Amino acid sequence: MSGQPAPARPAPDRRSSTVPKRTSLLPKPSSIVLDSSVLIAQHAQLTGTHPITIGPNTVLHPHTKLSSALAPVVLGEGCVVFERAKIGIGMGAEPDAESRQSSRASSRNSASTRDSMRSEGTVLAKNVVVESNAIVEAAEVGEGTVIEVGAVLGRGCIIGKYCTISASSIIPPNTRLPDYTVVFSGSQQRIDKTLQLRPEILDAKVTVHAKQLDMFKKLIPNNIAKWA
Hints:
Elements: E1 32-34, E2 39-40, E3 45-48, E4 52-54, E5 59-60, E6 65-68, E7 73-75, E8 80-81, E9 86-87, H1 97-108, H2 113-118, E10 122-124, E11 129-130, E12 135-136, E13 140-141, E14 146-147, E15 152-153, E16 158-159, E17 164-165, E18 170-171, E19 176-177, E20 181-184, E21 188-191, H3 193-197, H4 199-219
Parallel strand pairs: 1-4, 2-5, 3-6, 4-7, 5-8, 6-9, 7-10, 8-11, 9-12, 10-13, 11-14, 12-15, 13-16, 14-17, 15-18, 16-19, 17-20
Antiparallel strand pairs: 20-21
Region (Disordered): 1-27, 93-119
Subcellular location: Cytoplasm, Cytoskeleton
GO cellular component, one term: dynactin complex
């Protein structure tokens, strides 16, 4: 019986822990301004080359996309952006020739140079809600407006306060909607007299929204450290 020790078995290949992690190829915004109370879920995306500003208590659900590739993006206090919603100029589908022609005609008929300047970016005011799969390229969306599932707001749109854009509605570029407008059945419009004339109903709506924000903070892990 040989006194020679048995040859050691070769150690199995192990992936080195020093291998660098894969980095994203998407451009990062030139600046990101976040309030410390913002909730950004895992897998939310903030990309682009212009600034992105997000106000207090705003919530970004998983797989939301904010793009400042062509112009700045500003989200005011208490906004909620649900799964797979997209916000920012250039996030919509490439317009066809007819849409481009219509957009150019609307731009020529704009009331003033100030209006054209306002279209150079996307601004969501306080407590705006953008539901799943909606696309927002609008210049301004007023306080308390709700953009329902799959709705599309074209470039340069100016949407008033407490509007409701129903599911799958498409708002053409440079459209203006007054406060309390409800868009339904694709393109039909009416004014929500209940919210307009009964402030107690509006106050209740705001209260419910605040409770919803608190619920999200309890249920959704916050990944804000990645962006801070």
